[in-house]
Specification:
The complex is a heterodimer. In chain A, strands 1, 2, 3, 4, 5, 6, 7, 8, 9, 10, 11 and 12 form a twelve-stranded mixed beta sheet that branches. In chain A, α2 packs antiparallel against α9, α8 packs across α9 and α9 crosses α12. Chain A is of the alpha+beta class. By secondary structure, chain B is of the alpha/beta class. Chain B has a single domain, classed as Rossmann fold (3-Layer(aba) Sandwich), CATH 3.40.50. Chain B has seven helices and ten strands. In chain B, the strands form two sheets. A six-stranded mixed beta sheet of chain B has the order 6-7-8-3-9-10. Chain B has a four-stranded antiparallel beta sheet with strand order 2-1-4-5, covered by helices on one side. In chain B, β1 and β2 form a beta hairpin. Chain B starts with a strand and ends with a strand. The chains are: A alpha+beta, B alpha/beta. Chains A and B meet through α1, α10 and α13 of A and α2 and α3 of B.
Chain lengths: ~450, ~220
Amino acid sequence: MLSNYLKLAWRILARRKFFTLISLFGISFTLGLLMVTLSFLQTELGANEPLSNKNDFIYVEQIRLERTYYDTITVVDTSFQNGVAVYDTTFNYKESGTGASQTEMSNKIVDNYLRGLPSAADMTMFSTSNTHDVFVNGVKLTLDILLADARYWSIFDHKPLEGRFFDSAEVEAASQVIVISTKTAQDYFGRESNVVDEEMFIDGKTYKVIGVYKNNGKIIEYVSPAAVTPYTTMNMATLDNFYFGPFEVMYLKQTHDDAEKLKDEIRLAGTKVPVDHPDNEHDFKDVVLQPMTYNEMYAQGVYYEEDAEDSYATMKWILLGLLTFFTVLPTLNLINLNVSRIMDRSSEIGVRKAFGAHQGNIIAQFIVENIVQTILGGIIGLGIAILLINIINKGGYLGTSELTFNTKFFIYSFLATLVFGVLSGFLPAYKMSKLQIVKALKENQL
Amino acid sequence: MIKLQNITKVYRTKTIETTALNNINLHVPKGEFLSIMGPSGCGKSTLLNIIGLLDEPSGGDILVDGFAIKKYASRATAKFRNEKLGFIFQSFHLIPDLNVIDNVELPLLYRNISGKERRALAAEALESVGLANRKSHFPSQLSGGQKQRVAIARAIVGKPNIILADEPTGNLDSVMGDEVMDILTRLNKDNETTIVMVTHDERMANKTHRLIRLYDGSQVA
């Protein structure tokens, strides 16, 4: 029986080319595009090198000093009593606004208040936004150089391709050493390897290349810097403000469950920062640190909201909505097609029932047809996904980001499509299988 | 073999009630070749559909080959139709996506027999209607007469006791009609298959054992 259903399914697909084409197009493109989208999200947001620990990250980008302004609001109510104006005045002392100053932190804040938190297993301090123009054979090359401590290499697991990363002794000694990405090696030296011990001239200083890591092409700049040098190579003497400086901090929490605990410890550390320092020129009353997970940080960059958790929730809902939209729409289309396809064959259903098919036989036949169709669509979708990923990678359309094919996602997406395929076949097949034989025979005469 | 007692069929809409069959009593013994005649709309096909358990009467009792039907949508009724009844339709009702032999095999799909045996039985049925050389053709590649012969092969492949034919020659010219009629007559004679045939053609009806006439849903002769 099953082999007959399979044979019939194959014949139906082969003979009803238009329906087959439309259905396969819907299934395969949905799957293909879904795979490419998921692959992009996995590449950009997944826990892969150098973000293998990202699910344990807690990030503090800035420090905010704020105060609330109060003012006296005077309200005069006028009324007439016996033709005489009566004035009723009320005074309200209440919040009239807030003022805040916010930027990256000074090393004093980091060293004095943010180190040694109980729920943190490790932490790194680094400075972004150090853009330098260098000239190679007269051609300008702009490098985003990250200044970091040695723990940076423990938290972000960049893959060393040659040489080594700098250590804490070199940071302490403000050694002018530099670790560069393969892209920078290519841009600066014209080759991706054999550049260790070479020298780079940046802003009048000479740096010795001690290592090269694989370029990862991520969007976040401290994850994918052009080069990294010890933060002490910057002119530390100019960093004289007590509160504000160029530094950000990334923590690695002790256990997977410590996120809220560590966030609370960070917020508490913020409240311990004194506000009576002379550098508090505007008499701010509160110091606020806003810790966030890596995903919250990412979402904050995309959909800025006051609270990073709200941004992440927004991003999740938007992504979920888009994914649902792009899967539900073709599924509805598939159901619609299946309804037409099965209705179109009501006479065949009548004949089959007249010759002894019961309801279960009819339903099984159409479900097998749908499964065959979905499997075919899945195979084509797999091909489309691999093709698109290759085109995107080879064409460099996402900069240096490399999309990878995720088998697990493919299996999940394929199973979801299969479920939709079966359901979309089942509902109309069930309805048609209940049709009276005489009625079925009269419709769509064969 | 077939016993109908007080069979009525009434179609009802919101505004109108139409009596298609009115108190039909009929007994068709085993091996009889019965034809039903009457003007269009007199209820011939409705009666045939009721005998074939394809349609439900509004009233009355029906007994076919000892089977008293209780529920039309049941598996037991489907099994009975599969094993005991064969249908031939005026418009052939062959499945266009299946080739000739697959169309003929169709009733056997719903029996617990091997593919090999199905093939052999289908080939045998096709042989008996003279279409052994058309196994791989699709219905669209056949003439009307050939299509109806395939439909007959499909009706007899499961060796049913009763064949119900709804104007089997209605869409055919006289030569092809005669060929189809010869096959049915031979089936009835050689295998003692009970046949009930609806026809408009007096000449074809005269080749059967007995003729009944319907008029406005009632049996008049």
